[in-house]
Amino acid sequence: MPTARIREFNAVIKDIRKVDVLFGYCYPSTYRVGMTGLATHIFYSMLNAREDTSCERYFRYDVPSPGHSVETARPLHDNHIVGFSLTYEENILGMIQMLDFGGVPVLARDREDKHPIVLAGGPVVNSNPEPYVDFVDAFVIGEGDLVLHDIIDIVRESISREGALEKIALLKGIYVPAANPSSVTRLIMKDIDSVFHPTAQIVPDVPVGAKLEPVFGKSFLLEVARGCGHSCKFCLVGHICQPRRVRSIGRLKEIIEIGLQETPVRKIALIASSIGDLKELEDLADWIVTQDLQISAPSLRADIVTEGLLASLVAGGQRTLTIAPETGSESLRSAMGKGLSDDAIENAVSLAAQAGYKAIKLYFIVGLPGETDEDVEAIPEMVKRLSSGRRLRISVGINPFIPKAQTRLQRNAQPPIEVIRYKIRTVERDLRNVPRVNVESLDPRNARIQAALSLGDRSIGKVIRRAASYDGLSGWRRAEKETNIPFFSLANDVQRLQGTLPWSIIKKAKIA
Questions:
Q1: Which residues lie below 8 Å from residue 170, measured CB to CB, with a gap of 6+?
Q2: Residues 214, 81 share a domain
Q3: Distances (CA, A) of 497 to 63, 87, 500
Q4: Does 242 lie in the same domain as 279?
Q5: Shortest CA distance to 132 belongs to which of 171, 85, 71, 199?
Q6: pLDDT digit string (tens) for the chain, length 512 residues
Q7: Residues 75 and 97 reside in one and the same domain
Q8: Which one, of 33, 87, 90, lies nearest residue 451 by Cα?
Q9: Does any domain span residue 301?
Q10: Containing domain of residue 177, as a range?
Q11: Quick one: 162 and 223 in the same domain?
């Protein structure tokens, strides 16, 4: 049994003889990425604030063992509940492997009363849980902080696993496949100003730049807003996290002040899918800097960038501005609901250069419905314009279009892999000799896997189970061949995307 522990501040270790419910919070990828996610801190703090519950964390990679907790090496199978957060589609492989390592039967039908209840939440299962029903006892559809306490209460009071699941199935926003419900309504909270926000956040005691350091460095994660008010046709968050809800600047300052008393950091990482939805963003950034704190902001919409905002971000130590034009063509951008002009993008980059930024990250999508060769060629043209006459390093990220369940493009087929490859090569070729420009892209085969998992039904559970036993892309190909299920062609099968969709059981959000 592993004994080595990761040194951390604010980790909670309880005497399990004095609690009723043991909860294993699982992130099926690296420790670094899992500890960058605000959800990890929210659920960990919420659960450990209860006297009757002990929550410990599990990660797939970069920990002594994926089947034992980082706090006390508690075996995964010793928990009453294990909860997985699925952020990306291929996380499902890590989930299956963690269950296997942890001594929990991978298939829900094989679990007995002695085994923990397996929960799953996150954007992947919120859009379409059907590909994962073989492995999960109960899905949280919507925002988990609305129902997590109810789940704990039920498990604490139940005398059997089966009895607990029967009661959990009656909760709003919970999908228990074994209960065979006709529909499940997604739960979204109306007000986030008064909702719990973790202030004593876990910080790994590692050197700057170490493998285990979170993506934003040693930071206090501040949730500024939930949801997005823009609803681009291809964007999952803009469809499943409506409406946009923003914390008041007064509440945000209060959270920071308390948080910095309890968390040993001097950097604030702003968390929101659309950070510009906070009207007082410039005021908040300025206030953070005047407190002698560093600041990190996520991707910004180019049309909300101001000279004052960028000045505060630079003063707070940020040196890279991230913008997602999505496409170099203004007309295609408009057709996709992005509503962002070329002039706004140009202006944002100019302001960034003047403010002292050193680098720009630009994110684009190729293969969108209606895209022409001219639209693809407009990407390198835009990048060349933005780089001309400026001493900025520009990182260009190219992602293939991945149709997502629940979005307005859910019935649109993904282009063939060879077509996607051609589009990516077009951008790479035209930018190959442009100084200070670097292009990175997602392998179209991985995009095809993600699309299949997003759009699939229960039948692909067999493919997933096999793929989890192998490695890499070849593992998915081998799983497809062994199961005789056309996994790789699923996302560009137009006929298959007609009629009733597998995720139709998920209904419009109910505001709690």
A1: none
A2: no
A3: 40, 23, 8
A4: yes
A5: 85
A6: 454 679 999 999 999 999 999 999 999 999 999 999 999 999 999 999 999 999 999 999 999 999 999 999 999 999 999 999 999 999 999 999 999 999 999 999 999 999 999 999 999 999 999 999 999 999 999 999 999 999 999 999 999 999 999 999 999 999 999 999 999 999 998 889 989 999 999 999 999 999 999 999 999 999 999 988 777 899 888 888 878 889 999 999 999 999 999 999 999 999 998 887 788 999 999 999 999 999 999 889 999 999 999 999 999 999 999 999 999 999 999 999 998 999 999 999 999 999 999 999 999 999 999 999 999 999 999 999 999 989 999 999 999 999 999 999 999 999 999 999 999 999 999 999 999 999 999 999 999 999 999 999 999 999 999 999 997 899 999 999 999 999 999 998 877 778 889 999 998 776 76
A7: yes
A8: 90
A9: yes
A10: 8-187
A11: no
Residues 284 and 214 in one domain: yes
What type of residue sits at position 257? E
Same domain for 129 and 141?
yes
**Which token pair is 105?**
């039967």
Q: Is residue 248 in some structural domain?
A: yes
Q: For residues 410 and 403, what is the distance between their CA atoms, to the nearest angstrom? A: 5
Domain count, the chain: 2
Q: Is residue 214 part of a domain?
A: yes
Token couple for 294: 């560093």
**In this structure, are residues 433 and 400 in contact, taking their beta carbons and an 8 Å threshold?**
no
Q: Examine the domain organization and report whether 201 and 219 are in the same domain.
A: yes
- pTM equals 0.95
- Number of residues that this document lists for the chain: 512
